[in-house]
């Protein structure tokens, strides 16, 4: 097989285009309309609903739990949007429209994490100072242990 090539890849450079909302993007798997290419024909017929970012409220949970899950879903949606936008900016670092959107979404995500820390508990070590309780302790223990499941 020396000298023979089995395959040569050809990957077109992604262009800026129409974006999904952050609510849709997490369920679909991309923020870019042009990159949404379902593997099976039935996916386009059935839709792309995903329980990860479902806005369906479970009636068997407390009001406080429902509020935590709703806020955590928003954080997940914005975080996914930022991650996908970061991948685009890796190859389009001077795209002013993308940079502006990245800045806006970064601020939105930081504000949502701060809100979650103030109302419930810090999600990460970086959220501990956002707790706003005036406590002089490292309060990560206020939230659930990872093996306890979702935001309990």
Description:
Helix 1 (about 20-30) crosses helix 3 (about 65-90) and helix 3 (about 65-90) runs antiparallel to helix 4. By secondary structure, the chain is mostly helical. It is about 45% helix and about 0% strand. The longest helix is centred in the middle third of the chain and has 29 residues, at about 65-90. It has one domain. The chain has helices spanning about 20-30, 40-45, 65-90, 95-120. The protein is built from four helices and no strands.
Short description:
InterPro entries: CotJB_dom, Spore_coat_CotJA. This protein is an all-alpha fold and 152 residues long. The chain has one domain (22-148).
Q: Topology, pairings included?
A:
Elements: H1 22-28, H2 41-46, H3 63-91, H4 96-119
Helix count from the secondary structure assignment: 4
Q: Average pLDDT across residues?
A: 78
Helicity range: 40-55%
Structural class call reads: mainly alpha
Q: What is the C-alpha radius of gyration, as a whole number of Å? A: 20 Å
List how many beta strands DSSP finds.
0
Low-confidence stretches: none
Shape: elongated
**End-to-end distance:** 57 Å
Number of domains: 1
Strand residues, percent: under 5%
Main sheet record:
none
Q: SSE order in H/E notation?
A: HHHH
InterPro entries: CotJB_dom, Spore_coat_CotJA
Protein name: Spore coat associated protein CotJA
Organism: Candidatus Galacturonatibacter soehngenii
Domain Protein CotJB: 69-148
